[in-house]
Each structure stands twice: as structure tokens, then as C-alpha cells.
Amino acid sequence: MEYVTVSAKIPKKLKEIMDELGIKPGPIIREALEREVRRRLLEKIGERARAISKDLEHISDEEIAEIIRQYREGR
To answer: What three-state secondary structure class fits 11?
Structure first.
């Protein structure tokens, strides 16, 4: 896996407290960024799913069941 460096400015007092408590910022920053990326990707997927659902509203449940049946039989 290839890595890049990102940086953030934080208040000096916060850094002093982190040092006193032995808190390493790397893992915390990485986890926070991963969590935010995951949240935004899920949000984006949800928006796309809602748009697709709206586009497919006109298709009846029976038609969908028939399409699934045909797909399964074709395999």
C-alpha cells in the first residue's frame, strides 16, 4: 500500500495535552478520515439509490418479478 502525508494545524495547548497523555495523532486522524469517507460514500450511494428508485416507480411489482424469473431462467 502506498501512503501520502497530510497535515493539520491544531492549537498548541491541544498538542501539549496530547503529548502529556501519550496520544499519537496518526491513528486517530486516519480513523476519523476513513469514517468520514465511508459516511460520505454511503450518503452518495443513498442519493443514487433514491434517484434510481424514483426512475423505476412506474414498473409494477409483477413486472419486476417477471424480469427476475427470466434472469434466473437464462442463467
So the answer is: coil
Length of the chain, in residues: 75
* Cα-trace Rg, the chain: 24
Q: How far is CA 75 from CA 12, 40, 62, in A?
A: 63, 35, 20
Residue 30 has pLDDT above 90, yes or no: yes
What does the pLDDT average to over 25-34?
Answer: 96
State residue 75's pLDDT score: 62
Q: Give the H/E segment covering residue 52.
A: helix 25-55
CA-to-CA dists, residue 24 to 35, 37, 40, 72, angstroms = 18, 21, 25, 53
pLDDT band at 15, cuts 50/70/90? very high
Q: Which residues contact 18 (CB under 8 A, 6 or more apart)?
A: 25
